[in-house]
Write a structure and sequence with these properties.
23% strand, five-stranded mixed β-sheet, 45% helix, alpha/beta
Length: 118
């Protein structure tokens, strides 16, 4: 499941991802991000992962396509999770793109919001 968090405002959008994310849910979230990119040029994104979502192979391909096609439109990206696997992904994306990516622990949600909005 993916849901937008109430802290979203302006060019900052925040989501929480739990369990499996359906193609429809991902499509709705990506449409919202594309709408904000169209309006602001660049967005700031925060995604909270309380657990590691399991994805089927076809849905992962669509998510990577979205990231590949839109990542330069994301100015800052905060990943909020206690799952260490996201450290590797955040480091790769941070060095391979112009997007500033940081991972925050689940207890640092407020700190993540402040960082990504600044």
């Amino acid at each position: 499941m993916i849901r937008e968090l109430s802290v979203s405002e302006g060019n900052f959008i925040a989501f929480e991802v739990t369990e499996n994310v359906s193609e429809e849910e991902f499509g709705d979230a990506s449409d919202k991000m594309k709408e904000l990119i169209g309006k602001y040029g660049k967005i700031r994104l925060m995604v909270r992962f309380p657990e590691l979502p399991i994805q089927d192979v076809s849905s992962i391909n669509n998510r990577f396509k979205f990231i590949k096609n839109n990542f330069n439109d994301i100015e800052k990206y905060a990943v909020v999770t206690d799952k260490n696997i996201f450290n590797i992904a955040a480091a790769i994306v941070d060095t391979a793109s112009e997007t500033d990516v940081q991972r925050f622990s689940a207890d640092d949600l407020e700190k993540a919001v402040k960082w990504v909005k600044s």
